[in-house]
Write a structure and sequence with these properties.
Number of strands: 11
Number of helices: 12
Strand order of the largest sheet: 3-2-1-4-5-6-11
Helix content: 25-40%
Strand content: 15-25%
Shape: globular
């Protein structure tokens, strides 16, 4: 099969985990299961078919470096689980826009416009023949996300939106991709086993067993720049919507909730800790309380999911499927165009792979 040519916007911890993951599993045998991937061979595409061809960032210490080096440059703190050889891809200067909050200028080591000139994003996407652009900008990058979505449209690329800004789930933006004959997947990537998927399954268990859910919360702590960025509440509006709807969409009645990032703890590094509380009523209106704690390395937790999304997007390009990709978006993202139980979404993706579902 031809390679899948991928451009990345934002060379942070999540990009590091993705790029390391492609190297780590490049020789995986197709008859062996890889934890975190639906399939080693996903619709004819192996993990090693993914080739990174362009990258954009604002960190002056990453710009100009080979992507294989840039993924380990501070403030990145993702676990180093693969030695990535030189990729022959230099990180290009990204537009700053709202991707850098005022309190993140120093941590992100933002370049000076007088010293470095912003790259021609559309030109680079075209020159590198990128099949798709994966958006890994910081949470709260409303304008930045729309800049890259528009760049993908102009360059003729698919768009994979991993952050909680609404593109695939926005009818206006999804129509733009449909009109251009391009696929779009999103929004806000789920982890392999993260706070959202755990919370959804606890809620579903209660509903399946006839327990009334009266209230629930999910509090998340972490020490990477993602959590540092999210210490400003105004950058969290769509993040809270995305995470909350991912859980409450399963419940056919209103439930008091509080879901989302709650604190930045620097010494945790890339470790994420989640606390979930669920209170409900069972037979005889007797109370039931569930308390759960999840502790994971944050960035690698979603990398395998993104590898599957990339291959699903390439299948869409091959089949000339346009607009929002319903099945993979429902399976892999917190705020997809269509919310559905995870088991159904997985079945839809399997049918999509073999061509039984168009999207």
């Amino acid at each position: 099969m031809p390679e899948i040519r991928v451009a990345v916007a934002g060379v942070g911890n999540c990009a590091s985990a993705l790029i390391q993951g492609v190297e780590y599993y490049k020789d995986a045998k197709e008859n062996v299961a890889v934890h975190g991937l639906m399939h080693v061979n996903f619709g004819g595409y192996h993990i090693r078919d993914i080739k990174f061809v362009a990258a954009f960032d604002v960190n002056k210490n990453k710009i100009g470096r080979d992507l294989a080096e840039a993924i380990f440059v501070e403030p990145n703190c993702c676990a180093r689980f693969a030695e990535v050889p030189p990729l022959g891809v230099k990180v290009s200067p990204a537009p700053i826009l709202d991707g850098v909050a005022e309190h993140m200028k120093k941590p992100f080591k933002v370049y000076n416009n007088s010293e470095i000139k912003q790259a021609n994003t559309v030109g680079i996407l075209k020159e590198t023949n990128a099949d798709m652009l994966v958006n890994y900008l910081p949470v709260g990058s409303r304008n930045g996300t729309r800049f890259y979505a528009q760049a993908a449209l102009e360059a003729g690329c698919a768009f994979v939106n991993c952050i909680p800004e609404f593109i695939a789930s926005d009818p206006e933006w999804s129509k733009k991709f449909e009109d251009k004959g391009l696929p779009v997947a999103g929004d806000d990537i789920k982890s392999q086993l993260g706070a959202t998927i755990l919370h959804r399954n606890l809620v579903k268990l209660c509903l399946d067993r006839g327990v009334i859910v009266d209230e629930t919360y999910q509090l998340n702590l972490g020490g990477n720049t993602d959590f540092q960025n999210m210490t400003v509440e105004e950058r969290l509006k769509t993040k809270r919507i995305s995470k909350t709807e991912a859980v409450t969409s399963l419940v056919p009645y209103d439930v008091p909730t509080r879901i989302g990032p709650s604190d930045y703890v620097p010494f945790l590094g890339d470790k994420k800790i989640c606390y979930i509380l669920l209170k409900g009523r069972k037979f005889g209106d007797q109370p039931v309380t569930i308390k759960a704690k999840l502790e994971v390395e944050d960035s690698p937790n979603s990398a395998g999911v993104v590898i599957d999304v990339i291959r699903a997007a390439k299948i869409a390009l091959d089949r000339k499927i346009t607009g929002p990709l319903i099945s993979i978006s429902s399976y892999a993202f917190k705020h997809p165009p269509t919310q559905m139980p995870d088991s159904i979404a997985k079945e839809w993706v399997e049918n999509y792979i073999i061509g039984k579902r168009q999207r």
